Amino acid sequence: MTTLPTGHSGRLLHLDLGAGRSHVEEPTAQEWRRYPGGGLLGVRRLLTDTAAGLDPFAPASVLMLMSGVVAGHRAVGLPTFTAVGKSPLTGGVGEARGRGPFGAALKASGCDGVLVTGRAAAPCYVVIEGGAPRLQDAADLWGLETHCATDVLKARHGDDAAVAVIGPAGENLVRYAGIVTEFTHAAARMGLGAVMGAKNLKAVVVIPAAMPAAHDDATLQRLTAHYRDHIGANPLTAAQASATGFGGWFLDPGLTGYAGVGNFQTAAMPSVPAEAAQLLADRRRDGSGACPGCPNDCITSYDNGIDPRLGGLDEENLAAFVLGCGVTDVGDALDLVARCHAVGLDPVSFAAVWAYLTEVDRAERPPAAMIDDVTARHGDDWFLGEGVRLLAEARGRPEPAMHVKGVEFCRYDPRTSAGQALAYAVSPLGPRYEIVEHDLDFDPDDGPAHGLAQMRALGVDEWADMTHLDAARVARTAVLLDLWSGLDALGVCLFAGPPMRLLTQARVAEIVAAVTGWLTSDHEIMLWGRRRWNLMRLYNIREGIGAEQDTLPERFFTEPVDSGRHAGAVLDRDAFSDALAQYYALAGWDAEGVPTSITLASLGLQWADPRPTRPRVSPTSPPPTPSSVTPCAIT
């Protein structure tokens, strides 16, 4: 007896651009429960459906835009989607999360994910309507910036159509090109826009239909209303909704020593004019960056000199230019963020490339001009689009390149945040600021008053100096990594969820139950997180990324922080090595960082065990029947 899914369509749309064909897959109820969407289902498919050693730009490489069992619903923390593929920066798993209207449209598209393989013979774009795709010629769109292409596509397919598009950076295979949705919501990190460009795929256009009905919509709306009514009571959610928004965190002078400036050569914050906060407040476009149905307007949009629709600020974007590039005129920095959105570049990676060049060349180039150089890949500037690791290797100066596994560093300094230092090193996705909750939040001096409230539910009941790396820090970091990985697996926005914001672990479980009708718990959220984490680890190991890359740039071990409350802080190499070994043990990995057989068995992942003496059970779903394969020629 077939059980129809609740809250999602239960369908995956497969599209082969080279063959011009598509088919629909309906995974079993058991597969949806074990891999409920996002990067968890995505990395599972990378392991089972792609060959080891595949070039990210090869036609056989797969690019996935994934929803899942709860992501995309118009409720608190849910209007999200996840882009997944093999990262051109790392050669390992690539994941970039996006928020905003595209996630809601994808949920209402008639499918819970789009998996694209092949390479079209000429530029094309995909239209998904009623769960079925059609390919259309994109010759007139190729070369257009993201906002211009989006305008053309909306004029052609209607204002209700949701657009995910690449800019010239993705077309030119810049390895840190992103995917921009609805003008301002970017799935920016790890270069998945370049994977899209390698397929000659300019855009995915979704014409939404009916949203799958939630099992208990009344509970879903009650939880959303509770969040809305209490935003001001939580300092982090209140800050996200404030006039300076999510992206203005660096204006707090008390963060000296917490954020790296330039190429992490100093912690001294740049001298930002006193009127910067007022400028942000004056340029704020209320509601313009809101996610449908979510009351916390995190990705606020700000007026700029490029196009006001490009002005959405994620937490890192503005800081990338102010702290990373020293652009102290916040108006100019807003223009640079918008420019990156227009051409489809990740601002964080771009700022790291700029900072590296500034240090090694000792001559600054204006960031605005360099954005165009990177995007166009002209002449001697071709290598600027390769990312900081490959650029540094080509120049013979790898030491000042601030990256982990090829992913450029975010702005948070690991010398002053011991748990983040460990998380950045072990993360399969590199040093992403949203890998783990920040140590600052549990520091006895700087942590907010409510910092321990939800952590007690995770077994942590005392404050801890954010610079101190001991076994207790390793243990709490391991728990926090599993928690946020579980939220990512579900597609629940980290900036609404535990352990610091209004959604508790119990309320997230309530949301999952309200959407799906599943009897679930916060324990299962952690299990989803561990599955995602372990499968990502196994995929990277398969692709040659092992324990030797679980490290940090040399600067963090040898050059102390030079100013602020944490002046003198530096990572102790022996303590860091001990912490890695302790983390491996807690995670259930062997001394080489490979998940043990019993760890994989405890997660239902025996099929993924890389050890040749273990029986391998194929997890693949039955192939589609011939009647489900549909021609999809470009028109």
UniProtKB/TrEMBL annotation:
UniProt cross-references to Gene3D superfamilies, sorted A to Z: Aldehyde Ferredoxin Oxidoreductase Protein, subunit A, domain 2, Aldehyde Ferredoxin Oxidoreductase Protein, subunit A, domain 3, Aldehyde ferredoxin oxidoreductase, N-terminal domain
Where does the record place the region Disordered?
A: 609-635
Keywords on this record? 4Fe-4S, Iron, Iron-sulfur, Metal-binding, Oxidoreductase
SUPFAM superfamilies reported in the protein's UniProt record: Aldehyde ferredoxin oxidoreductase, C-terminal domains (SSF48310), Aldehyde ferredoxin oxidoreductase, N-terminal domain (SSF56228)
Q: Which cofactor does it need?
A: tungstopterin; [4Fe-4S] cluster
Q: Which family does it belong to?
A: Belongs to the AOR/FOR family.
Per the record, the domain of life is: Bacteria
Iron-sulfur among the record's keywords? yes
* Record organism: Mycolicibacterium obuense
**Protein name listed in UniProt:** Aldehyde ferredoxin oxidoreductase N-terminal domain-containing protein
The record's Pfam families line, in alphabetical order, gives: AFOR_C, AFOR_N
Question: Locate the Aldehyde ferredoxin oxidoreductase N-terminal domain: which residues?
Answer: 8-210
- What Gene Ontology molecular-function terms does this entry list? 4 iron, 4 sulfur cluster binding; electron transfer activity; metal ion binding; oxidoreductase activity, acting on the aldehyde or oxo group of donors, iron-sulfur protein as acceptor
